[in-house]
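Standup notes
- DV: blocked on the single-chain target, sequence here:
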Amino acid sequence: MNTYAHVFTIRRLWIILAVSMVVMFAVLLYFGREIYQAAPPIPEAVRTESGETLYTRADIERGQAVWQAMGGMQQGSIWGHGGYLAPDWSADWLHREAVAYLDIIARADEGAPLEQLDERRKEYARATLRLDMRRNTYDPQTGAVTVTNGRAEAIALVEAHYRDLYQARTEEAQKLRVDYAFPMHTRLTDADAHAVAAFYFWTAWAATTERPGDTITYTSNWPHEPLVGNTPTASVFMWSIISIFVLLGGIGALVWYYAREFDVWRADSEPETGFARTDFMEGLALTPSMKSTAKYFWVVIALFGVQILLGIITAHYQVEGQGLYGLPFTDTLPYAVTRTWHTQLAVLWIAVAWLATGIYVAPLLSGHEPKFQTFGVNFLFFSLLIIVVGSFAGQWAAVNGFFDDLSANFWFGHQGYEYTDIGRFWQIYLFIGLLLWVALVLRALWPKLREKGGSSLIFLVALSAVSIGLLFGASLMWGEKTHIAIMEYWRWWVVHLWVEGVFEVFATAIVSALLVRMGLVRVSVATTAVLLATIIFLGGGVLGTFHHLYWSGTPIAVLALGGVISALEVVPLTVVGFEAYNRSKLEGQQPWEHVYRWPFRFFAAVLVWNLVGAGLFGFLINPPISLYYMQGLNTTATHGHAALFGVYGMLGLGLTLYCMRGLTDPTRWNERLLSISFWCLNIGLFMMTFLSLLPQGLWQTYVSFSDHYAAARSAELMHHPIMEGLVWARVPGDIVFAVGVGAFALFFVKAFLAGRGPAAKAAPAP
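- DV (later): unblocked, structure below
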């Protein structure tokens, strides 16, 4: 019979990992260059045939900056990226302009409004509209876009609508402001309203104008708008079919290989000296820096609680518009603010839990406490507090209109880009903080890293920590006036590669290293498993970044790569249920393990939600043909909630509980509260997902498919009684989930107030 070592060698896996990452990032950077070159041009001027200038490049760039200051992607979306309550402004402008221009064409050619024409003459008018709006009139020599006088008239009508909306000029506009959850006390100046209209026009122009020498638009015919001929391209269908083929082939290959080698892996999983008979944490004295991490976890619980409260307020804006059960919240906490804080807090509390775990675990793995480590841990903690308070205050001030200087807003206010909203100053501060965290982790691990024949598992922990620090630097790659297509490329480096990539590798490596330290898994098996998982995950995950960029002004090759490679992200998730069952058996080998059963249960929940949230809901929206109709709908929110909390949140809570094993006395834990929390969190998440978010998203998808995309995001649909009923259907799940959060917070407080128990004696270093 083969042994585990004969199936793989760690050296071979490191080579495969290194080569695959070099290739993947080379391809990612190469197509990044293509995105720079193929981005929709920003015209120096938009002029009529008669020579009148409608918009200038300065207008468009200022409009982008004003849009950012108002909350940007938190108040509606651009090219499908952003919030779900207000419209997608690109699609909304496009539809309004097409409808207005179609009527103008009908009156000019037929002398009557469109509705009075017969079907033959209507179709002639539609054909004229499609030809005119899809025709690319951009002149590379002058940098000007020329529009017909009739289209200029339609543009003026649409701009008037947006002026009314942003300046609250009419009763209809006031109603829309309520429906969109706009802050009622903010108004734009004439100049800023004109600039925002210019920016919206340009994003719609890119969405309906064909690339030079091609028959598809700069956004690959997105959004769906039959009036202007925006329908799925042949490439969308072809690469969707290929992605499904790749998915099924990958699943078959992995399941076959997993089944073939499982007996070999299982036979070699037991440590050479047998499973540990005692808990290595018994009697272990925590180092000062390890003790210092306790305050991080207090912040985790506080931020988690605030995030849930903000989520309740944010969701309620969809049915009431301006408040919470009559309370005028929008006067002080507009929707753009609550959604910004809600999404950012989700990332922040999870990230803080993981960062604290890294600081806590590093001395545990190495048996080494560097000089001034505690000072560094404390300095980092207070820096993180300053960043959170400062950046959140800046975002609140921006949305409420306190920044007259748009450059000051970019640096200290609201950048407007979902998940990367904080001002540039705070981004730089956070980047420095992350580099400090990397230094703290590496200093503690250094003796282990220097050992001859040191553990590959420890090297993988260190490497993933370094990647976390460096990859956040991608958020500094765009500036105040950077083209939005180029900004999107770098933004998803942060959101996808940072949050969904290397953080997951880091957590997997940490958990595996702890299992080895606990004497539950052989180090060679754990190392091999983590390396193999990293190869499989990042093999699809790095280039899978492109599935966020299908419609962001990118070349068709991005759609092809994103569609096919993203399918591979789902492949390893097909065996997570089996892995969860197998791990549960492994973790019950010794009686002393009962003190870790709750962290392990949260880790098991991670595997389940990884399959559901990342796998099932992820693949629901990832194929190009799916995302063509679903981009920016509540199907995205379904995937986001199930994956972000179900996977990363559950993992953060599990890591928190693991660290609490040393920071508190587990014999005094109130396990009833933990049980209530665990089941309420999982059941509540299931309820809000399947009873509310998913039905909303599927209905929107139907409307997007059968009518047009703008209709799926319209105020008429979002405030339809049935849609509002589906929003109210979140309440039971939200209540159950909130009970889970409250139970966990109460458990946490009780555990820390109970103390660590008798003083521990120093234990020998591992």
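- Follow-up: Residues 1-7, 759-766 have pLDDT under 50 and may be disordered.
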